[in-house]
Amino acid sequence: MEFKELTEKQWESLPSSKPKVQNPWDEVLGKLESGKIVQLEVPDDKIRGTRIGLARSATFRGMKLEFRVSGNTLAVRKSDKPVKARVPKEKP
Hints:
Blueprint: H1 8-13, H2 26-33, E1 38-41, H3 47-60, E2 65-70, E3 73-78
Antiparallel strand pairs: 1-3, 2-3
């Protein structure tokens, strides 16, 4: 492996880290956290993916969601049920 030394000036000119990518669901999840019920108009072929994406993001924030679907309308609200902590699977 090859390497070379950098000066302090070169070090400072490099970006410190990747910029954070904003979650597209942040605004919706904020409304849900405050107890609001949200309705989303989603193409029929995107309902499942939207539901999964929202649920995963909500779990990361410590919430569980409830969903109702009618046509291409997805209604979502925060559930009163607690989020279950996942137990890692043991490797055989």
